[in-house]
Design a protein that fits this description.
- The chain is elongated.
- It is built from four helices and no strands.
- The protein folds into two domains: 47 residues; 37 residues, no CATH class.
- The chain is mostly helical.
- The protein starts with 10 loop residues before the first helix and ends with a helix.
């Protein structure tokens, strides 16, 4: 026995989900049905949220980006410890 459910989703979400499903050769209904069956079987809903940087990390990376733009605090690639020591000695 089959049943229908109506859910509200963002327009773009529906468009992109349908494109992905048809690109894989299945309908959006089959895609949703498969996800629902997986949910029932595992009793788990897994969502991935984008990583949000801490304010401290954002500030730190901002300083690094400014240094890169100014070509400041940047060293080259060293092929040996001797080259690194020479670079460090010459900088001071």
């Amino acid at each position: 026995m089959r049943t229908s459910i109506n859910i509200e989703i963002d327009r773009e979400t529906g468009i992109y989900a349908r494109e992905i499903a048809t690109g894989r050769g299945i309908s959006l209904g089959v895609l949703v049905n498969t996800y629902l069956k997986k949910l029932i079987k595992s009793k788990e809903a897994c969502f991935t949220l984008p990583y949000k940087m801490s304010l401290r990390l954002e500030k730190y990376l901002s300083r690094i980006e400014k240094d890169i733009q100014k070509n400041k605090n940047i060293s080259g690639v060293f092929s040996s410890a001797k080259d690194l020591k020479k670079y460090l000695h010459d900088e001071n």
